[in-house]
Amino acid sequence: MSNKHHLELTQVGMDFPTPKGPFNALQDVNLRINKGEFISLIGHSGCGKSTVLNIVAGLYKATKGGVILDNQEVNEPGPERAVVFQNHSLLPWLSAYKNVELAVKQTQNGRSKKEMKEWVEHNLELVHMSHAADKLPAEISGGMKQRVGIARALAMEPKVLLMDEPFGALDALTRAHLQDSVMEIHAKLGNTVIMITHDVDEAVLLSDRIVMMTNGPAATIGEILPIELARPRNRIELADNPQYNHYRHEVLKFLYEKQRKVESVEEHRKKQSEQKSGATQINVA
Ligand SMILES: Nc1ncnc2c1ncn2[C@@H]1O[C@H](COP(=O)(O)OP(=O)(O)OP(=O)(O)O)[C@@H](O)[C@H]1O
């Protein structure tokens, strides 16, 4: 069997059951991702980005098509696909160290006590959180909690790191620091990453390719923009780089000309609450 592509989404479609009948959120989503690629998903609120991510995570089952990771069909959540959500989701009664340790214990890691300690410490070090290893989530800032969430995901040694607006709730400066850390970690570990973002600069700075989604219903991939900027990337140098600005412009053009959102935020929220009525809650920006 061919192993050319590491992660493949083929003809993925998703219908959600609603009181008014099935709602076709996604249609014909096709994407081939290579090992080590950093992919951003961008598109207007409600287009289906989280649905795509949740299908890759194995949290949702596509109603059409499917996902293959290293020649194996994805049918359920697994430690080889770790997820980082916008709201860290750390266990509040466990220290940063214990939160990471618990995640590692859930994988079949076969580490001795000493190796486990070294591994947890190593992952906290990667996200620059060694100094706060013994703090509870309530004792650290939002940015620090997000760092621990990333350490926890990385410590599981996932083949694919899935991030749903990981920096969405952070102030601009903290966000910039975390983006730099994620770029550093990606350069070091070479994980495959899929990240949802609403931030055009973040998408251009971090990605190898930006996947731009059309508005729903029946949302799909509208365009894919390869970002051919040399790494390591420096945000200050890139601010004056014409190629960087060209990429930014392409994404903005897609979002605000080609896929201009006609629906107001109010209409979107109303529609969402009607559709869900008791279904799983998702984050709305
Ligand atoms: N469990 C569900 N039941 C019914 N409809 C749903 C469900 N989950 C999502 N939807 C609908 O599917 C569409 C895509 O939702 P999704 O959350 O994937 O969008 P998104 O692009 O991630 O949005 P945002 O950027 O606001 O987080 C929306 O119209 C949403 O209302």
Automatic annotation (TrEMBL):
It is found in: Cell membrane. The keyword Cell membrane applies. One of its GO terms (molecular function) is ATP binding. InterPro entries: AAA+_ATPase, ABC_transporter-like_ATP-bd, ABC_transporter-like_CS, ABC_transporter_ATP-bind, NO3_transporter_ATP-bd-like, P-loop_NTPase. Pfam families: ABC_tran. SUPFAM superfamilies: P-loop containing nucleoside triphosphate hydrolases. Residues 265-285 are annotated as: Disordered. It is a peripheral membrane protein. GO terms for cellular component: plasma membrane. Residues 265-274 have a biased composition (Basic and acidic residues). Residues 7-240 form the ABC transporter domain. SMART domains: AAA. Keywords: ATP-binding, Cell membrane, Membrane, Nucleotide-binding, Transport. Residues 275-285 have a biased composition (Polar residues). It comes from the Bacteria. Belongs to the ABC transporter superfamily. NCBIfam families: ntrCD (TIGR01184). This is Nitrate transport ATP-binding protein nrtD. The lineage of its organism: Bacteria, Pseudomonadati, Pseudomonadota, Gammaproteobacteria, Alteromonadales.
